[in-house]
Amino acid sequence: MALQPDKTDATMKPPRAKRPSALLWAGLVALLLIGGVAVWSLVNGRLPFVPPQLHGTVVQSPDRVPDFTLDASTGERVSLSDLRGKVLLVYFGYTFCPDACPTTLNELKKVPAVLGQSADDVQVVMISVDPQRDTPEVLREYLAHFDPSFLGLTGTDEEILAAATPLGIYYNAHEGSAATGYLVDHTTSVLAIDREGYLRVIYSFETPGEAIAEDMRWLVRQ
Amino acid sequence: MNRSVVGAAETNSGAASGGDRERASSGRRRVSPSAWLYGLASLLALSIVAFNVIRPIVVLPRIAPSPGFALVDSTGQPVTSEDRRGFLTLYSFSYLDCDVQCPQSVDDIAALRAAVAATLPAGTPLSFVTISLDPENDTPARLATAASAHALPADAPGWLLLTGDPARTRATVGGGFGVYYSPPDLQAGDASPRVRFDPRYVLVDHLGIMRAEYRTGTPDPALIARDVNLLLKEAANSNGVVRLGYEAAHLFLCYPR
């Protein structure tokens, strides 16, 4: 849109101009800049300096996510605030989960692979909704099947409830079959929390890992 | 993020006014290509300023996710936060025995529901959900009696009364919605209320995001109807090019006054 009138004007060269004035040079520089932006937009499929169309529900919360402290799969107590500085992808699930959790973790596994170098700036966190069966050791072993860098968190039911509720996550244990034991229904969203601890995007179940990784590329630069 | 965007808009307009001055000095000779560029830049900056001033699109803020919960309704059926996905929900909090100095009784909520139903067109996908602050006393059966006492036509906004485990109620209402209340006082005599709490209504959109909070027991039904209509309009325009306009409105904090 911005380019059209310039092109037409550039073709009508001023007849009297013998030496290009400073103003014309400035105009040329500006034209180059606009051209650069246009090329960049075409390559990246979006405008620079403008947030991209993200692949989930965007939240503009004025408050940070309420802090919580849980037992990590690394063996220590970890607070959400300890993880500040990295972009977090938080998922609530449990290791006995028959379907949704492995599907989601397999998608999240793609995120570090797609990000490459900046993968260190993104931390995938799985918080257990089944503290009875998910000890830190069980979580570590389970997550190692997907990506050893994934962090598992668990705790008492009260601690997990305090972490899950403000993030819009519910969970509810109920009877399963003899083969599965009891099951835990839970919200299957993935939550992106930025470096400052603000919730930014909520991804619904089955959002492709590549789409999440694309958004992460933008969030790690924030 | 918002602050940086506003900052960018300000520097843009600053550059534009500089451009205007230069154009004015060189304008008498002929319109040079750079003048065109400055003109375009100032036009862009002006349109950003105009969007902020005229505010052609007004949106409600995306405050935070609505808390997750798993409770039961007046028929004893489980209701979770996920069940509310796809519908607009106006959450409220109260308990049946709330009569002494009650800031927001179940009757008050029923009255607001009737008033809002009269303001909105029939069939609006809005439901009232009231979470009991006294789950030990408010059994599903008692809630059912209260609900049937305030029955409205089927196409009016629905009303779910929820109760459940006290610890989960505390996590949902206190931790999630940020409505603090004193635990039910079993020793209380007639002179003092069993539960003390602040009145609150919370409007949640179809994606499960809190969009408005009313910190009063008697909000204006017209205000709630306006906000419901804003959410419906935004949901209807959530695809295609119009969506960009709505995203811009969020970016520039074009909230209703």
Short description:
The complex is a heterodimer of chains A (222) and B (257). Chain A is α+β, with helices and mostly antiparallel strands and 222 residues long. Chain A has helices spanning 3-11, 22-44, 100-115, 136-144, 157-164, 209-219; strands at residues 57-58, 69-72, 77-79, 87-93, 122-128, 151-154, 171-174, 183-186, 190-193, 199-203.
Estimate what percentage of residues of chain A fall within beta strands: 15-25%
Total of helices of chain B:
7
Radius of gyration of chain A: 24 Å
Q: Predict the CATH topology of chain A.
A: Glutaredoxin
Q: Low-confidence parts of chain A, pLDDT < 50 over ≥5 residues?
A: none
Which series of helices and strands of chain A comes N to C? HHEEEEHEHEHEEEEH
Biggest sheet: strand arrangement of chain B:
1-8-7-4-5-6
- Per the principal axes of the C-alpha atoms, what is the gross shape of chain A? elongated
Rg from alpha-carbon coordinates of chain B: 25 Å
What's the number of helices of chain A? 6
The termini of chain A sit apart by 28 Å
Number of strands of chain A: 10
Order of helices and strands of chain B: HHEEEEHEHEHEEHH
Q: What is the helical fraction of chain B, as a range of percent?
A: 40-55%
Give the fraction of residues assigned to helices of chain A.
25-40%
Range of strand content of chain B: 5-15%
Structure description:
The complex is a heterodimer of chains A (222) and B (257). Chain A is built from six helices and ten strands. Chain A is α+β, with helices and mostly antiparallel strands. Chain A has one domain: Glutaredoxin (3-Layer(aba) Sandwich). In chain A, strand 7 and strand 8 form a beta hairpin. Chain A is elongated and about 90 Å long. The two termini of chain A are 28 Å apart. With 257 residues, chain B is α/β, with parallel strands linked by helices. A six-stranded mixed β-sheet of chain B has the order 1-8-7-4-5-6. Chain B starts with a helix and ends in a 6-residue tail after the last helix. The N terminus of chain B is likely disordered. At the A-B interface, helix 1, helix 2, strand 1 and helix 5 of A face helix 1, helix 2, strand 1, helix 5 and helix 7 of B.
